């Protein structure tokens, strides 16, 4: 992504697109060389698909921005919240018939692609959105950029479960959800903390209105 940001500046590009090794994940860099969050890309792709087939269900995982379910509803869709992870999202898509699923991590799943994730299809839908307007990517995305997010912050802990229980007690006045780790929501901010499956880490994502 850092190489891509430099290339966007040096070449005067309107957009930069990065794929991982098997192209199931996709990340954007806008014309200002700013990295676009997976939540904003999910909102944009959802809006494009719902414009063509309104009323469909759209999946988003629980660390996506508040903006994602808002945009889905605003465009006539039905937002469905899931825990994080490929296997969970594909199952919920199968159970609900959802047209699309997006994850903050850059995975985008499409019903017409056998519910599999495809960075290429997501990239083409972003390019389509850019092609029907004379706005740069940052302005195309600006209606969806509504909140302030921490990004994922990883902390090494001795005992993941015990750390989560301490947080549960410390933030007992918030609306708590244990679907995937611990999510605590207040009127003006929320956070989710989840244990890594492979390392002694807790992964924190936090978002606020200001």
Q: What would you note in describing this structure?
A:
The chain has 210 residues and is an alpha+beta fold. Helix content is 35%, strand content 25%. Strands 7, 8, 9, 10, 11 and 12 form a six-stranded antiparallel sheet that branches. Strands 4-3-5-6 form a four-stranded mixed sheet, with helices on both faces. Strands 1-2 form a two-stranded antiparallel sheet. Strand 9 (175-177) and strand 10 form a beta hairpin. The longest helix is centred in the N-terminal third of the chain and has 15 residues, at 38-52. The radius of gyration is 17 Å and the shape is globular. It starts with a helix and ends with a strand.
Keywords:
single chain; alpha+beta; four-stranded mixed β-sheet; 7 helices; 12 strands; 35% helix
Q: Can you write the helix and strand succession as a string?
A: HEEHEHEHEEHHEEHEEEE
Rg is 17 Å
Give the termini separation.
27 Å
* Count of helical stretches: 7
Morphology? globular
Low-confidence stretches: none
Count the E strands: 12
For the biggest sheet, the summary is: 6 strands, antiparallel
In terms of DSSP E residues, the strand content is 15-25%
* Fraction of residues in H or I helices: 25-40%
What's the overall average pLDDT, rounded? 96
Question: Structural class given helices, strands, pairing?
Answer: alpha+beta
């Amino acid at each position: 992504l850092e190489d891509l940001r430099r290339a966007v500046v040096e070449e005067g590009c309107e957009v930069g697109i990065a794929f991982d090794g098997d192209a199931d994940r996709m990340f954007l860099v806008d014309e200002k060389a700013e990295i676009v969050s997976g939540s904003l890309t999910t909102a944009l792709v959802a809006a494009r698909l719902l414009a063509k087939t309104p009323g469909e269900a759209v999946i988003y995982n629980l660390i996506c921005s508040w903006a994602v379910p808002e945009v889905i509803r605003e465009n006539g869709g039905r937002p469905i919240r899931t825990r994080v992870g490929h296997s969970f999202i594909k199952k919920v898509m199968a159970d609900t018939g959802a047209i699309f699923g997006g994850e903050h991590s850059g995975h985008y799943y499409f019903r017409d692609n056998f519910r599999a994730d495809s960075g290429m299809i997501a990239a083409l839908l972003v390019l389509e959105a850019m092609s029907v307007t004379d706005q740069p990517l940052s302005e195309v995305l600006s209606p969806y950029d509504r909140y302030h997010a921490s990004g994922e912050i990883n902390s090494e802990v001795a005992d993941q479960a015990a750390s989560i229980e301490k947080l549960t007690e410390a933030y007992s006045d918030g609306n708590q959800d244990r679907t995937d780790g611990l999510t605590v929501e207040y009127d003006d901010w929320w956070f989710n903390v989840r244990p890594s499956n492979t390392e002694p880490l807790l992964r924190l994502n936090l978002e606020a209105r200001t």
